């Protein structure tokens, strides 16, 4: 990593990952502001959904190969006796950072493919944790770097550690705040800033024409480092590094907000909306419940239409009474079976004088229905009185009367008690209107009613 390529190549990788995350987080939040959940990585369609993680793994392995096998002169990092030489310590440190990011990518794929309980929450939290571990490893090794970072190179690494710290903190915050867009936005910008700053370091430290005035490149311990001729030149070089960092810091912030505004304008027409107090999962249940309610209402309507319309509430004297009767063959259908208007009222009433009972109210109405027994009996007798009975033939009646008196000689009268006799006669009828017990057995119904 102690070369121009060693800084620009990994810096380009961080830059691309940061841009990819920043673009997708903004787009996802603009399209779904109400249901936004920040994913730790973004799947793709072709050739596989793990393209982002696979590219991180490839870049990490390439970095390890460069540090341990391609960069050294003998293409291996160990000394003749199998120990690690002093000039290769920084190569191992850089390779361990790359190995940590490789582990993050590999474990992210395994967590996505594994069958684990509560997979969405667990996978998100553990993946973010592995990302935080990678940034923690990067921060630790850069802070405890074995190389001498006392000159301008040390100032670049010091400011880089601040950006890595932001990535670490936001990754840890993302575990507990998966729905926070600002946490994901800042983390994406910090990854982007890491890439930009690594590339700036590569060009400013290993391009002779860009080195600060009073400083020069010096070959030490197997690689080139920037040294300054005096304290004043060193102070000036560090101040220029701070100014560069401030300029890129402002530029990255402006870029992030500008990109958000552009994407909000492009994808803002496709914002999702939700009804208040209404969830997508409840739509099917509400539709099914509405169908059930409509079916119950139809059943109650058909049941009420087959019965009576009853006025619920009020006094018993003011309640409407209705009697349902079916005309027989001997009844004149054109006449009202219900009797006179004084005793029975028509079922049909003007609107407002009746209430159609539905559902549970129907059974409540039945419990409030008051039926007058005397009026029902009176209405029945009046209906019987209207039956057209042909006049009896005197000759036939005489013959039948003689036969009856012959068979019933042992009995003079009909018992007034409601008990059955030994021949199982019908019980004597009692009524407040007709005295059946005192009437002649041979009397006709018309004679019985006229005798009242």
From TrEMBL:
One of the Pfam families matching this protein, by short name: DUF716
Biased composition (Basic and acidic residues): 342-356, 397-407
Localization of this protein: Membrane
Key word Transmembrane helix present: yes
Lipid bilayer topology: Multi-pass membrane protein
Keyword NAD (UniProt): no
Stretch list, region Disordered: 326-356, 392-424
Any single Gene Ontology cellular-component annotation: membrane
Residues spanning the membrane: 6-23, 53-71, 95-114, 126-144, 156-177, 189-207, 245-263
Primary residence: membrane
UniProt KW keywords: Membrane, Transmembrane, Transmembrane helix
PANTHER family recorded: PROTEINASE INHIBITOR I4, SERPIN (DUF716), PROTEINASE INHIBITOR I4, SERPIN (DUF716)-RELATED
Family that this chain belongs to: Belongs to the TMEM45 family.
Name of the protein: Uncharacterized protein
């Amino acid at each position: 990593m102690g070369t121009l390529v060693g800084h620009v190549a990994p810096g380009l990788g961080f830059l691309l990952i940061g841009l990819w995350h920043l673009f997708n987080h903004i787009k996802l939040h603009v399209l779904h502001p109400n249901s936004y959940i920040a994913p730790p990585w973004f799947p793709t369609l072709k050739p596989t959904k793990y393209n982002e993680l696979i590219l991180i793994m490839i870049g990490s392995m390439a970095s390890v190969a460069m540090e341990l096998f391609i960069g050294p002169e003998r293409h291996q990092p160990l000394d003749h006796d199998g120990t690690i030489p002093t000039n290769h310590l920084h190569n191992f440190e850089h390779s361990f950072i790359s190995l940590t990011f490789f582990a993050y990518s590999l474990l992210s794929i395994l967590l996505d493919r594994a069958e684990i309980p509560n997979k969405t929450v667990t996978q998100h939290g553990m993946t973010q944790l592995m990302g935080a571990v990678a940034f923690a490893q990067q921060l630790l090794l850069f802070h405890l770097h074995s190389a001498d970072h006392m000159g301008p190179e040390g100032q670049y690494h010091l400011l880089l550690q601040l950006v890595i710290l932001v990535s670490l903190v936001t990754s840890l915050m993302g575990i507990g705040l998966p729905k926070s867009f600002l946490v994901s936005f800042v983390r994406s910008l910090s990854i982007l800033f890491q890439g930009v700053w690594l590339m700036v370091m590569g060009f400013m430290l290993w391009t002779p024409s860009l080195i600060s005035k009073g400083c020069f490149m010096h070959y030490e311990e197997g690689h080139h480092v920037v040294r300054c001729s005096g304290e004043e030149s060193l102070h000036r070089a560090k101040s220029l590094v701070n100014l560069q960092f401030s300029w890129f810091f402002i530029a990255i912030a402006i870029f992030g907000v500008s990109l958000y505004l552009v994407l909000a304008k492009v994808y803002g027409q496709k914002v999702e909306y939700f009804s208040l107090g209404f969830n997508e999962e409840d739509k099917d249940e509400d539709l099914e419940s509405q169908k059930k309610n409509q079916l119950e209402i139809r059943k109650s309507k058909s049941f009420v239409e087959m019965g009576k319309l009853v006025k619920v509430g009020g006094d018993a004297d003011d309640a409407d009474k209705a009697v349902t009767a079916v005309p027989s063959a001997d009844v004149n259908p054109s006449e009202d079976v219900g009797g006179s208007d004084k005793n029975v009222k028509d079922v049909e009433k003007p609107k407002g004088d009746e209430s159609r009972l539905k559902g549970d109210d129907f059974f409540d109405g039945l419990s409030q229905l008051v039926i007058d027994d005397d009026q029902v009996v009176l209405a029945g007798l009046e209906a019987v009185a209207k039956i057209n009975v042909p006049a009896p033939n005197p000759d036939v009646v005489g013959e039948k009367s003689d036969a009856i008196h012959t068979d019933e000689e042992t009995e003079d009268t009909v018992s007034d008690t409601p008990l059955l006799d030994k021949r199982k006669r019908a019980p004597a009828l009692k009524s407040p209107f007709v005295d059946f017990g005192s009437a002649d057995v041979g009397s006709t119904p018309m004679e019985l009613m006229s005798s009242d």
